[in-house]
């Protein structure tokens, strides 16, 4: 948290080309049993941690994958479940090597086509990030 009482966090919209079939785009979603929700990998920043470094750390911790960061995506502003204002910085990130291992914080991951990911995400603000990723990749 910073001195204004905001929770600072960062994450990525993690994507890859499907290893199966047509090589279409897939987006990684994580399931958090504590909240029983589906979201993009993200988490609170450690004291003094830069947002991008925190985002890459969270992706690795939650999905088991390294990643290559790309374009900055829109920042999310909302009130967390404890009633605190939260600010989450996001980046597009292409998945690298890795293997998911279930844990207490994240017990499942799914790689889904964009339309299916948009449908599965719990929070509408996370659906907007899928659209932002598609815009960035389309322009690249």
TrEMBL record:
InterPro entries: NUDIX_hydrolase-like_dom_sf, NUDIX_hydrolase_CS, NUDIX_hydrolase_dom, Nudix_hydrolase_domain. Keywords: Hydrolase. The keyword Lyase does not apply. It comes from the Bacteria. GO terms for molecular function: hydrolase activity. Signal peptide: none annotated. This is NUDIX hydrolase. It comes from Streptomyces melanogenes. The lineage of its organism: Bacteria, Bacillati, Actinomycetota, Actinomycetes, Kitasatosporales.
